[in-house]
Write a structure and sequence with these properties.
Blueprint lengths: L1 E9 L2 E10 L2 H7 L11 E2 L5 H4 L7 H14 L16 H7 L3 E2 L30 E5 L3 H11 L3 E6 L11 H14 L3 E6 L6 H15 L4 E4 L9 E5 L3 E5 L5 H5 L4 E6 L1 H13 L2
Parallel strand pairs: 3-4, 6-7, 7-8
Antiparallel strand pairs: 1-2, 5-11, 6-9, 9-10, 10-11
Helix pairs in contact: 5-6
């Protein structure tokens, strides 16, 4: 694994270090080169210029100019959702760039305010930049996963081999069930793919127990075929954040084992993983 550091200067002081991680071939083959955007934080759509808009995913020169023209014609955007009214911005493009947008204050690239996260996330925010990859080893994984579920706005998609809860105090797998239920109650759409084993009834018993508990609260659940083994541990949040690695949702994996997973802030990878999970039968 190769880790590169670059210092960005701003008004005589180092503003932040951006970490670009080039992972091993198995990871590169999964999602290809990471689209690392030279972009720091969120963009104020009522203040940014066309060159700043071009730093967003899927926004080239023509779309950036279209946004600026619309803003000049209307005298500014009343809210972020109004960006949908720009003819050149389709729904998929809007959803891809929405996490990087803010309305009031100056752009965070100039040190201004950042649009507030949902209330559930305010106390435990995980800050990343588009294109950032972060290694989550051993017990580093759980607090990040918990935070991302807590801050999810519109979707959570999971594909998990084993989701095993216990009644013991502070069982982290059980806490994740509660986090998912809370996310569903605030309107987040949740889809979970569980392994259905053709050789180990204990796996099926544990996954079925969690599935039934989640289904009672409106979580969408399905199982793969007994003829195949789905050994994946994938989490996709808001079609932007992806967690991929070795962590099962068990007390041991989340609290004791040596495990390794990656957090990737990349909308393209998120979409690839969603397509992959949808094709599993």
């Amino acid at each position: 694994m190769l880790i590169l550091f670059k210092d960005y200067q701003g008004e005589g002081a180092v503003r932040r270090k951006v970490v670009a991680v080039v992972v091993l071939c198995w990871c590169a083959s999964l999602f290809g080169a990471v689209d690392a955007i030279a972009f720091d934080g969120q963009i104020n759509i009522n203040a940014a210029g066309s060159k700043e808009f071009e730093r967003l995913p899927f926004i080239g020169e023509s779309r950036a100019r279209a946004i600026v023209r619309y803003r000049q014609k209307k005298g500014g955007f009343a809210n972020v959702e109004e960006l949908r009214q720009v003819p050149e911005i389709g729904e998929d493009t809007f959803l891809a760039i929405k996490p990087y947008l803010t309305l009031s204050g100056s752009s965070t690239r100039s040190g201004g305010a950042v649009e507030q996260l949902p209330a559930a996330a305010s106390a435990r925010e995980i800050k990343t930049q588009p294109g950032e990859v972060r290694l989550l080893k051993d017990q580093d994984y759980y607090p990040v996963l918990q935070s991302l579920i807590g801050r999810a706005v519109f979707s959570i998609d999971l594909s998990i081999f084993l989701f095993k809860t216990t009644n013991s105090a502070h069982n982290r797998a059980n806490e994740l069930v509660e986090e998912l239920i809370a996310a569903r109650k605030r309107g987040v759409i949740i889809n979970i793919l569980f392994e259905k084993s053709g050789y180990d009834p204990k796996i099926n018993k544990e996954n079925q127990k969690v599935a039934e508990r989640l289904q009672k609260h409106g979580v969408r659940v399905r199982f793969d075929s007994e003829k195949t083994t789905t050994h994946t541990k994938i989490v996709v949040i808001d079609r932007r954040y992806s967690l991929v690695g070795s962590h099962n949702f068990t007390g041991s994996a989340l609290s004791h084992n040596h495990e390794a997973s990656l957090l990737v802030d990349n909308q393209s990878l998120a979409n690839q993983l969603l397509e992959y999970m949808r094709d599993i039968r």
